[in-house]
Structure formats: C-alpha cells, structure tokens
Amino acid sequence: MNADDTFVEKYSSFVKDIALSIKTSLGLDTESGDLIGWGFSGLLEAHQRFDQNKGISFRTFAYYRIRGAILDGVRKMCYLPRRAYARLRAAEVLDAESEHSLLTRATNPQMRSDLSAHVRSIDSILGRVAAAYSLAAAAAEYDPQTDTPESDLLLGEAKKAAVSAVDTLPERERILVRGVYFEERPLEDLAKELGVSKSWASRLHSRALDTLREIISDVGG
Question: Lower CB count within 10 Å: N or C terminus of the chain?
C-alpha cells in the first residue's frame, strides 16, 4: 500500500460518516456511493490545500472540504428532491459561515479570547442560516408565473417577506441572491459575472442575508 492509499484508508470512515450524515439530514434517496465518491474528492482537495500554519487541524479543515464537495455534488443532481432544496442551501451557508468564523478566530488571538465576539459571531451565523432557509424554501414553493391567491396562502408571512425583500437589495446583492436561490447557480459563476472575486461575492451574499434576516425577524414579530 503506497502513501496515498494509506492516507485515503486513514480517513475512509471519516468521509463515509460525513456522507451518511448529509444523506440523512437532507432526506436524500440517492445512493450513498455517489456521496462518498464526492467526499473523497473533497478529502484529496483538502490534502493538497491544507496549510498547517492556518492554526486549525487537518481533520477540521478536511471536514469542510469534504462536506463542501458532497453538497456541491448534491446541488448538481438533476433529481434533487424539492424538499431537500432549502436544507441544502441552509447547510451550504452554515458551512461557509462556520469555516470563515473558525479561520478568523484561529488567526486572530484577540478574537480567540473575546467571548462576546464569539457569541456575536454565532448569532450572525445562525441568523444567516435562518434567512437562507426561509428564502430557499420560499423560492422552491413560490412561482410568480403560476402563483394564485390560494397557493399564496401556503407561504408563511416571513417567506413572502423574504421573497419581496430581494427586490429592495442593492443591485449586486440582488443578482447574487436571485442567482443562488431562484436560479440555482453557483456562487463562483455569479462572482465572475459581476467581475468580483469569490470571497467578495461571499461577503455580498452574507450582507444580503443579514438584511433579509432583519426583515424576516420584523415580520415574525
């Protein structure tokens, strides 16, 4: 067994556990083998990109790369169940925000010791996840081309508010949100279209979710 085989074998159970967790949480009917295959691709990517000077362990770094690869594969499935759509989007936002927060804290000694900043970070993450879930759920259920008063009643007030609020966002944020949630386009493609980096597009996306979170909270009372 060569070094690569030994490495893959070492993390085989780790990848399979993550794949099973995602399958269960999203309620997927697809074969586990597809998810595991995507997971191993993420593991190998993590192996190539890991920088021990970032201040986090390889296992933690690989966790997000593995989940990201699986979620990306799931998003591209042409037979993705509608019920899984909102959960998928929320999971992607949670991973992206959590990884960013983790890396920021790992490289910033002041943040590591500031409990209040940590609590605020968690609150922001959860708020953005909630906004993403509401928006994705509304996007999956709401079609302005076929909407009727009867179907409109099926949407909660918060979901309807989130959909309506998209039009009030600044242009680039509106393009990103509509692209990600209504057109199911990758953030990378939208970033290129807007002429910005993926990291900057991610910031715009987070800012938009913060705005939507406030609107949803106001509607929810």
Answer: C
Architecture field, domain 84-221: Up-down Bundle (1.20)
Provide block-wise average pLDDT over 10 residues at a time, the chain (221 residues).
79 93 83 91 91 83 89 76 69 75 65 54 72 75 47 54 81 90 83 89 88 71 49
Q: From the CB of residue 182, how many other CB atoms can be counted at a distance below 10 Å?
A: 18
Residue 79 has a pLDDT of 64
Helical (H) or strand (E) element with 140: helix 115-141
User: In the prediction, which pLDDT does 96 show?
Assistant: 78
Separation CA 101–CA 94 (nearest Å)? 10
CA distance 147 to 44: 45
Dihedral sign for Cα 213, 182, 91, 137, please: positive
Pick among 1.10.1740.10, 1.10.357.10, 3.50.50.60, 1.10.3720.10: CATH of 1-80: 1.10.1740.10
Q: Which of 135, 161, 140 is nearest to 84 (CA)?
A: 140
**Can you give the pLDDT at residue 17?**
93
What pLDDT does 171 receive? 92
- Cα–Cα distance list, 154 to 143, 159, 166 (Å): 12, 10, 19
